[in-house]
Amino acid sequence: MNATLVTPGSPWRPVEVHESVDSTNAEILRGDPTPWRVVTAEEQRAGRGRLDRGWTTTPGTSIAASVLLPRPTNAPLGWVPLVVGLALRSALTETSGLPVDLKWPNDLQAPTDGQRKLAGILAELTPHGVVVGTGVNIDTERADLPADTATSLRAAGAPGVSREAVLTAYLRSLATLWGTLQTDPYAVRAAYAAACTTLGREVVVHLPSESVRATATDVDADGRLCLTTKDGVRAVAAGDVVHVR
């Protein structure tokens, strides 16, 4: 990785590259609180994903990066992780040529490799904005993946994709979508709905106190998943979603 990945004219500050950190989110939180920072590391020793799951990276074959975004001014905070997932999906499809499925809220799955997971995303609210960390398996060999449910672009059928190309495409897409979120949130909502493979499917959503089986029918203005059950419609802001095959 190098520090010259930012497209001229974009809001991003120069990329801060580290050899090894505990987590890129923690590195952002320890430093300058000015929005549009980007921190990446060759090795992340104690990264976390959504629902507090661990996320480690193999040096040289994965991306571990965090960004500090300003708070959205014209959209609920619930849309931040969804927009990040949409931007990362765009970057992965653009650079790899593979189809990438987006499961609510922001799980990126490889349909060419049994819907295994390509990336982890974690958003954390701070007084200065929103820190969003991403871990992406790029050229990781299958034997080096952390779990059977994980995959990489290589394992899914696209070996040799440049990590720099993926990160550059991700930052470009995220900046564009972030701007649209402020000016036309309905356009972002429509784009997300078109990309999200959860909508229209029967799902089981595991919540802290229960599991709900329903049809996922929409994502509302707050970014919540709308579930249609025999008792009516309910919206959930967080949960572990399983697509019923």
From TrEMBL:
PROSITE patterns: BPL_LPL_CATALYTIC (PS51733). Residues 1-182 form the BPL/LPL catalytic domain. One of its GO terms (cellular component) is cytoplasm. SUPFAM superfamilies: C-terminal domain of transcriptional repressors (SSF50037), Class II aaRS and biotin synthetases (SSF55681). It comes from the Bacteria. It is an enzyme of class 6 (ligase). Keywords: ATP-binding, Biotin, Ligase, Nucleotide-binding. Signal peptide: none annotated. Pfam families: BPL_C (PF02237), BPL_LplA_LipB (PF03099). The keyword Transmembrane does not apply. CDD domains: BPL (cd16442). One of its GO terms (molecular function) is biotin--[biotin carboxyl-carrier protein] ligase activity. Its EC number is 6.3.4.15. This is biotin--[biotin carboxyl-carrier protein] ligase.
